[in-house]
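BUG: 3D viewer hangs when loading the predicted structure for this chain

Environment: internal workstation, default settings.
Expected: structure renders.
Actual: progress bar stalls at 90%.

Input used:
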Amino acid sequence: MLAIERLQVAYGKVQALWDVTLEVTAGEVVALVGANGAGKTTLLKTVSGILRRQSGSITYEGIHLEEASPPEIVKHGVVHVPEGRKLFPEMTVIDNLLMGSYTVPPSERPKRLERVFNVFPVLKERQKQIAGTLSGGEQQMVAIGRGLMAGPKLLMLDEPSLGLAPILVEEVFRVITEINRLGMTVLLVEQNTQHALSLAHKGFVMELGRIALSGSGNELLANSNVRKAYLGL
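Structure tokens produced before the viewer hung:
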């Protein structure tokens, strides 16, 4: 579905990604884990067209995305939910959700909204509320819901559990599992390594802009280096 080969990305003279190669197969949850500054967010931004590569290739269902614009990439079915939610805090919940459907014909939007409300029933109750007044967990639901409004085939989530209380972290991962069960492919960037690898079909560990390890979620959880570096075990 998504194939990244020998990807190199820099911020000016500072190299951020070095020869990154990974593959996401349709129907999978793929976890990308690693410390702060490892290059995980840079990778998602490059796939979604926010950053441009120096070299390497990014193909999605056989289509090269390297020179595509962010709106074109969304139209292909690749949607990025950024770290920190990035909502429009002075707009209502429903208006934030509708912002995710700018590539969708207006006649399709009510159906998309209903699907989002089925996943996040609380958002139906809060749809007229100003987004900035929601709890952190509810704001994260809006951010994911906004991504779902675009009708992605591949949903890329950047740190969806960041800053949330433990009970809300559990809810976010439950939703990710449910979204995947309904047929959506997920590329998940997470510092909550235990949760991410527990639900992932496949995982990649990034260190200093490179892929250091890869394997199934269970294999990486059992790896002594991963357990020591990221789980404190």
